[in-house]
Give the backbone structure.
Amino acid sequence: MEHLLDFLLSTRTVAVLGAHPNPNKPAFYVPDYLHRKGYKLLPVNPGYAGQELWGQTVVSRLTDLGEPVDILNVFRRSQALPDHLEEILHVRPRLVWLQSGIIHDGFAETLQQAGMQVVQDRCLMVVHRKLVG
């Protein structure tokens, strides 16, 4: 996990696939924690496109972001991940983080073969708190 600490300390931009405006949902409070820790959050969710979260306009697709992404924090059901594969390969985040309960080995393997790091079934907020504080 030491490499994760270095990565979290050097990272500044986190795209949030499945971002949600409801403060009771993990897709809001996990990214909100990161925002309060100084990360730039780029929200992605077609259902809320045009709204504002964390000082940024929500976009429909990852390919609408228009800037490099260090971490892609994913809040989508495991079975929906293949639908986003092409976008993720196009955007090429340095790390794809699948939140707690999200596991798809074939998806992860494809991203790793394309040179991206992948974390599955772990909460980014919990790991950040443990490693960074």
